[in-house]
């Protein structure tokens, strides 16, 4: 797809998200927050769900946690308009609670379509919920953060890079340190991918394969 075709396709997805009115999250004053960024992005950040400020501005990651994420993007030599930023869930859950499985399932086709259109080289999962999507529900953020993994996605190999959520980094100094350290690896990973070098482990050991199967069969 050309950049214009991707842009139009992403706009169509955004329109479809808006047309749902929020699905299971529909409520007065709740706005759609489809995501934003470069249709040709090599890196796609996927967070959890919009919060108060995101709902107000209809843009992802613009509150306190968002400011940290966006600063880390810039501090590591990327431009905000070079990447794509979105969430697992496209409307704000009441009181910023965690999205529930039905809400995640409702918005999954829209996110999958965004990933397919953008076709990024790296998916950075920001927080637990997007990590579960790619690494399975048994993945533990403390164990896997900052390590890239290669996953099969729609018949293609994609590199997934799990990170702590920037909101968790704001709450805990140690998490902040890990969040910032992990971020520094992104440029190197992207350079390696662009040079055709092998990245990360394939999900081929027993435990990970099991998790993957369970996720695909939706046993959990
Ligand atoms: N947290 C998220 O996960 N997403 C946002 O857009 C903002 C905060």
Label this structure with key terms.
220 residues; alpha/beta; Uracil-DNA Glycosylase, subunit E; 7-stranded mixed β-sheet; 9 helices; 47% helix; globular; binds uracil
Summarize the structure.
By secondary structure, the protein is of the alpha/beta class.
Spell out the blueprint of helices and strands:
Blueprint: H1 3-19, E1 36-37, E2 43-47, H2 52-57, H3 64-75, E3 84-87, H4 101-118, E4 122-126, H5 128-135, H6 141-144, E5 149-153, E6 156-163, H7 166-171, H8 173-194, E7 201-202, H9 206-216
Helix pairs in contact: 1-4
Bound molecules: uracil.
Residues 47-51, 54, 60-61, 63, 65-66, 87, 127, 167 line the site of uracil.
The number of helical runs is: 9
- Total discrete domains: 1
Largest sheet: 7 strands, mixed
Order of neighbouring strands in the sheet with most strands: 1-3-2-4-6-5-7
The portion of residues assigned to helices is 40-55%
- On the 0 to 100 scale, the average pLDDT is 91
CATH evolutionary superfamily? Uracil-DNA glycosylase-like domain
Main structural class = alpha/beta
Q: What's the SSE pattern? A: HEEHHEHEHHEEHHEH
CA-CA gap between termini: 35 Å
Radius of gyration: 16 Å
Work out the strand percent: 5-15%
Bound molecules: uracil
Q: pLDDT under 50 segments (min length 5)?
A: 203-220
Could you characterize what this model shows?
This protein is of the alpha/beta class. The longest helix is centred in the last third of the chain and has 22 residues, at 173-194. A hairpin with a 2-residue loop joins β5 and β6 (156-163). The protein has helices at residues 3-19, 52-57, 64-75, 101-118, 128-135, 141-144, 166-171, 173-194, 206-216, and strands at 36-37, 43-47, 84-87, 122-126, 149-153, 156-163, 201-202. α1 (3-19) runs antiparallel to α4 (101-118). The protein has nine helices and seven strands. It has a single domain, classed as Uracil-DNA Glycosylase, subunit E (3-Layer(aba) Sandwich). A seven-stranded mixed sheet has the order 1-3-2-4-6-5-7, sandwiched between helices. Helices cover 47% and strands 14% of the residues. Uracil is lined by residues 47-51, 54, 60-61, 63, 65-66, 87, 127, 167.
